[in-house]
Amino acid sequence: MAHTGLTIQAANAWIDGAFRPAQVEVEGGVIARIGAPVHRRGPLIRVPDDAVLLPGLVDAHVHVNEPGRTEWEGFRSATLAAAAGGVTTIVDMPLNSIPPTTTVEALKIKRGAAAHSAYVDIGFWGGAVPGNLGALAPLHRAGVFGFKCFLSPSGVDEFGHLDQEQLIAAMTEIAALGSRLIVHAEDPALLGGDRALGADYAAFLQSRPPESEASAIATVIDGVRRTGCRTHILHLSDAGSLAAIRSAKAEGLPLTVETCPHYLTIAAEDIPAGAAAFKCCPPIREAANRDLLWEGVVDGSIDAIVSDHSPSTVELKTTGGGDFGLAWGGISGLQVGLSAVWTEARRRGIPLSALVPLFTAGPAAVAGLAGAGVLAEGAPAHLTVFGVDDSLPVDARRLRHRNPISAYDGRVLKGRIRRTWLHGDLVFDASEGGAGESPDFRGEPSGTLLSAATGEDARAQKLAETGAGR
Ligand code: ZN
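^ thats the input. predicted complex w/ zinc ion below
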């Protein structure tokens, strides 16, 4: 796609960690200049004063599932949902697709599936499973941003979990590579088995108690201390574990943690019987726990808010007729994350400025994504306009991800993404067709497949895969 020049003026642009008036000038897909209005490149766009100009959001935790379970989610539908949610960079999880991303060959297959369907930039996590320990180096060299492991069963047979000894082995190997480990931290010894639990949410919640997270996180912290491995705790639900995470950070351990919009915006007490759209692991906990998670957001203990977008078919979500033990665990929230969290933040008197880093530079740092999540000269021109007072009624059937099921269905959220630019190209415009069918999307997929290798390597890889340069 041709990159025409572009100038955007905003009274509230997120630059260097604060909102300020600015003119952002785009040339060749890159932010060429930020400052006072002197030069003009291409058409001038003025962001209305009731909206803010943000860097494109970064979501480092997305399960795309293609190939192999494309009926659950695919690159086209997932990246369209991302663009509509202001997200311009996602990092894809190594499991639920078939094959899982645990070998170089599997990564090639993934990238091939994504190459012509990416409406946003995509990076890839690799997997660390019992079968590839000791052989992670080739996958690291092939450009994955790090390695994911589970300490409890993952939910799919082809992606096994690590025991404590294997966890230390993985950490030792990954530390030596200079990569990073991201961990699904639940202790299987403290989890109820996968079995029928009925339609009452409380029974499911009891089957995955906070102690299961606390125990696994203690194991992870101990491993980081022993190996020095840069490690990230995925989707924290148990706020009680924040104390251990804070003290590990204070100790100087290379540890980060994320939570998800559903843990910050939904409470167990409010989940209706049989409403499997709300099932995820670890589970959404009680309102009192949610309040403590918010403390972690405000005091900086939590590094990132990411969707853990983990869809399946509606059939799998409703397996067992609303039995929380039998339904697929995973929430599809890629498109509405910022709006959902902002809605709850407003209720709590928390400013947008407290949230923006957790949706941008925070997750970019977690994944080691250079140039993503900032408005800065020389960075890719990924931008999004967020109408802070706009109303966003959520209708699952109108969201962009593949299967029409959402934990936010029927909610009316505050704040809405109006426009998104990727590499300087307008890829989403809510003013043209609202949340309806295609008219608000423009052009062909122009996302870049990112690689954690050097810039030259990444560029060469993209050219080879897409056969088209920029
Ligand atoms: Zn996940």
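The chain has a mean pLDDT of 92.
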